[in-house]
Amino acid sequence: MNLSRKGEALSPSITLAITAKAKEMKAKGIDVVSFGAGEPDFNTPLNIREAAIKAMNEGHTKYTPASGISELKKAIIKKFEIDNDLKYNESQIIISTGAKQCLANAFMAILNPGDEVLIPTPYWVSYPELVKLADGVPVFVECLKEDNFKFKIDILEKSITDKTKAILINSPNNPTGTIYSRDELIELSKFAEKHDLFIISDEIYEKLIYGDDKHISIASLSKDAFDRTIVINGMSKSYAMTGWRVGYAAGPNAVIKIMNNIQSHMTSNVCTITQYAALEALEGPQDDLYAMVDIFQGRRDLMGSMLNSMDGISYIYPQGAFYIMVNIENFIGKSYNGKKITDSLSFSGILLEEEQVAVIPGSGFGLENYIRLSYATSNDIITEGLKRLKRFTSGTK
Ligand code: PLP
User: How far is ligand 1, taken at its centre, from the CA of residue 122, in Å?
Assistant: First the structure.
């Protein structure tokens, strides 16, 4: 029998495939070092966990409005005002099952069949698939090494067609860790205005920024940008809450209303208990978040200094998130133990087989000649894994 063409056209997540292979090897007793993680390795802070228990005990165990409880929307509105200089009302906010569902809702709300969405390469693996699920067409826009893999207006201009409907911005970025500056965002907002595009601004790594860089939401840059932007954010990365499944979006009333209607039929509200936990995350003490950011910064610096000591290796300097994209082009065409490295996928496969180090090939993010390493893991694991990577790269001939 025929199955859904749309469903069959979806690619499986390469990130999950590699992580699953590493787990399988670990289960067999093999000493695997994994740099695959897309989530903090910390438990959710205690005050948040306790708020969930309290919510259950107080009977917050029933349905809520599909778009979420008013208390949480109010806390999100306050967060947007304080952190991002953005002023929303409650009808402009929706709480969803992770930033992922916010993105899925947003694409379904704005796209008609054949509408195109501009996506920078490299990109987070789910963007193109979510666009396709919403009957849209992902248009990959090449971003260059010399631009730190950020959008450049002249390249964007060449990607415009009469079907272009939206542009996707992800800052801080997964997988590169780079951040857009205010000036760059102003240029992008003018580009969106010129071509009358929606802006989808995925700001989920907003809190994970190291050093003096500041996160700026493109929606805050002008009235026009505010009116055409759907801001996506969530609790997964900042509050170590990946398993709780809670994200939120803010944007024009008309768009959020459709997102709400879609969600009301798809999944209804986010788990009620999770919503109360998220409320505590936003309103309670932020000390655990700051401590986590300090630790991530130390790990980034450790990884950077170890990578600096390896011949033939360079990387994109990450200003935020918890990933580092390592350039491996000098090893393409060479061999390790007689096994030929032809691209980032074979580099990752041979590294896993020979040195038991799991990394994600850049091809999964639309960028060949790179591998992505996550530093959401301990200093000991980073040290051991990079020692093995050094042995691997120096043994490659
Ligand atoms: N956006 C980016 C760039 C991500 O890396 C992720 C998760 O890896 C998400 C969105 C989705 O996060 P969640 O659905 O857990 O909120």
Answer: 15
Distance 358 CA to ligand 1 centre (A): 20
Residue 314 tokens read as 């360079």
pLDDT per residue of the chain (397 residues) written in tens, 0 to 9: 899 999 998 888 777 777 788 888 989 999 999 998 888 999 999 999 999 999 999 999 999 999 999 999 999 999 999 999 999 999 999 999 999 999 999 999 999 999 999 999 999 999 999 999 999 999 999 999 999 999 999 999 999 999 999 999 999 999 999 999 999 999 999 999 999 999 999 999 999 999 889 999 999 999 999 999 999 999 999 999 999 999 999 999 999 999 999 999 999 999 999 999 999 999 999 999 999 999 999 999 999 999 999 999 999 999 999 999 999 999 999 999 999 999 999 999 999 999 999 999 999 999 999 999 999 999 999 999 999 999 999 999 9
C-alpha distances in Å from residue 288, one per residue of 18, 42, 142, 170, 291: 30, 10, 37, 24, 5
Choose which residue among 126, 248, 360 to substitute to test ligand 1 binding: the one with the highest number of ligand atoms within 8 A of its C-beta: 126
Q: Kindly report the protein residue whose alpha carbon is nearest to atom 3 of ligand 1.
A: 174
Query: In angstroms, rounded to a whole number, what is the distance separating the alpha carbons of residues 111 and 397?
Result: 49
CA distances from residue 203 to 231, 318, 338 in whole angstroms, order as listed? 7, 16, 43
